[in-house]
Request: fold
Amino acid sequence: MIRKITLFFLVTLSVCASAVAQYSIKSSVWDDKNGMAVELANVQLLSAKDSAYAAGAKTDSRGEFVLSKVKPGNYIIIVSSVGYIKQTSNITLTNKDLVLKRISLVEN
Reply:
């Protein structure tokens, strides 16, 4: 009986821990032509399954952004800014933080 209770407790604990497991996605956005950081670019993270909004951010003065509290899964990341062509990529977040390579935007 104690063995069953212990097993139930461990299974419940592991399910709860995985349900709250959240990670971050980091990167930076740069102008493809002049190599300068793009400040205040919009970054949206959408679920690949149904395009539901998952997270969003704006780039800082160094062109960097962080999407926090993201659950593991498949996503579409969309980066846009006035005067640039929108960039869209598919990404997969596993059970760890993700650092994407630098994202270059091309002038429109």
Q: What stands out?
A: The first helix runs from residue 2 to 20. The first strand starts at residue 23 and ends at 31.
